[in-house]
């Protein structure tokens, strides 16, 4: 495992983090074993959020962490979402952020969150007030680092005017690369750690998915246009071609490429989602190489030729309160 320090802090963290979003929706015992397996693999970063199974992911993580030294595990969580008419919407007001944080601390069984993110930018609430509130939480020790999730470079810049941002968490993977011309260079220039989620694109980039897979029980996949025909077939073909290319050129797999696509840049973290212990098995085989620029260019060309109808992660964006009320 490789480790880095979160920018502007003394937090040392594994460069692969466990994304617990699916743990909030599947079998509890399997989720607990998955967390333990990740910790056994040297993954000390656990990324979660209250909206993952309506707090269930945090509760499961908190139950597992009773058996571990709290100071040896880095918890990343979020706030800034509420449910209105059973739908999650953005609300980054300090009042809701504080309430959500208190609930998260209780579920996790801890007195502090190591990395605390604004889950989504809220166009109806001044970034200045949210940022200052986050700064106060950091000063009092309730959180150790400030993160912004799903923020553009412009939104991050505005937030940075009022509080130090230590981490940016955007969706980023081989298929969804918009951050390479916005958020990523901004983070590199301003010394902000980039923590990418959707690193494996909901499992597409593991190379294990098949055409007849059933996604009806998966809350994210069934809403993701990539997993709907005819796009799904196009993405599966791209994955197969990338896997063949990687094996021939590097003796590696598409999964190795997916993670190192992120970690090939300095000061980056890749979140690895999973809800079964076996999902964590390949972690130890990921390190020891980096994709060179030629490899990156050839992979992009494979995608260009096979994915005729590409789509980004825009389906993830929750509505604002104004659009829901």
Features:
325 residues; alpha/beta; 8-stranded parallel beta barrel; two-stranded antiparallel ribbon; 35% helix; NADP_OxRdtase_dom
Describe this structure in words.
Keywords: Oxidoreductase. This is NADP-dependent oxidoreductase domain-containing protein. GO terms for molecular function: oxidoreductase activity. It comes from Methanolobus chelungpuianus. Pfam families: Aldo_ket_red. With about 325 residues, the chain is of the alpha/beta class. The chain has one domain: NADP-dependent oxidoreductase domain (TIM Barrel), CATH 3.20.20.100. The protein is built from ten helices and twelve strands. The chain has helices at about 30-40, 55-65, 95-110, 125-140, 155-160, 185-190, 230-250, 255-265, 295-305, 320-325, and strands at about 5, 10-15, 15-20, 45, 75-80, 80-85, 85-90, 115-120, 145-150, 165-170, 195, 270-275. The strands form three sheets. Strands 3-4-5-8-9-10-11-12 form an eight-stranded parallel barrel, surrounded by four helices. A two-stranded antiparallel ribbon has the order 1-2. A two-stranded antiparallel ribbon has the order 6-7. Strand 9 (about 145-150), helix 5 and strand 10 form a beta-alpha-beta unit. Helix 1 crosses helix 2 and helix 4 crosses helix 5 (about 155-160).
CATH superfamily: NADP-dependent oxidoreductase domain
The CATH topology is given as: TIM Barrel
Q: Termini, distance in Å?
A: 46 Å
Strand coverage percent: 15-25%
Rg, alpha carbons: 19 Å
Order of helices and strands: EEEHEHEEEHEHEHEHEHHEHH
> Average pLDDT across residues?
95
In terms of quaternary structure, the protein is: single chain
Fraction of residues in helix: 25-40%
Uncertain segments are none
């Amino acid at each position: 495992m490789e480790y880095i320090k979160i920018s502007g802090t003394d937090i040392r963290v594994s460069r692969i983090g466990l994304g617990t979003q699916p743990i909030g929706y599947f079998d509890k015992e399997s989720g607990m074993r998955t967390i333990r397996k990740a910790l056994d693999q040297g993954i000390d970063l656990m990324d979660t959020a209250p909206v993952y199974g309506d707090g269930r992911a945090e509760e499961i993580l908190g139950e597992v962490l009773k058996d571990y030294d709290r100071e040896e595990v880095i918890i990343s969580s979020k706030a800034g979402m509420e449910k209105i008419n059973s739908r999650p919407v953005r609300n980054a007001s300090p009042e809701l952020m504080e309430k959500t944080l208190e609930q998260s601390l209780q579920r996790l069984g801890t007195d502090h969150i190591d990395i605390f993110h604004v889950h989504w930018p809220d166009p109806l609430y001044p970034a200045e007030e949210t940022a200052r509130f986050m700064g106060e939480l950091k000063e009092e020790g309730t959180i150790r680092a400030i993160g912004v999730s799903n923020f553009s470079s412009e939104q991050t810049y505005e937030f940075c005017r009022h509080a130090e941002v230590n981490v940016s968490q955007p969706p980023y993977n081989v298929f969804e690369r918009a951050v390479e011309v916005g958020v990523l260079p901004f983070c590199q220039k301003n010394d902000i750690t980039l923590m990418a989620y959707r690193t494996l694109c909901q499992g597409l980039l593991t190379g294990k998915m098949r055409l007849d897979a059933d996604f009806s029980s998966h809350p994210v996949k069934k809403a993701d246009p990539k997993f709907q025909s005819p796009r799904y077939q196009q993405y599966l073909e791209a994955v197969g071609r990338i896997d063949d290319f990687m094996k021939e050129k590097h003796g590696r797999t598409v999964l190795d490429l997916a993670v190192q696509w992120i970690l090939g840049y300095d000061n980056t973290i890749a979140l690895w989602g999973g809800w079964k212990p076996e999902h964590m098995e390949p972690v130890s085989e990921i390190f020891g190489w980096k994709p060179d620029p030629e490899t990156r260019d050839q992979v992009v060309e494979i995608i260009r030729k096979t994915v005729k109808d590409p789509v980004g992660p825009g389906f993830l964006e929750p509505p604002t309160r104004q659009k829901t009320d």
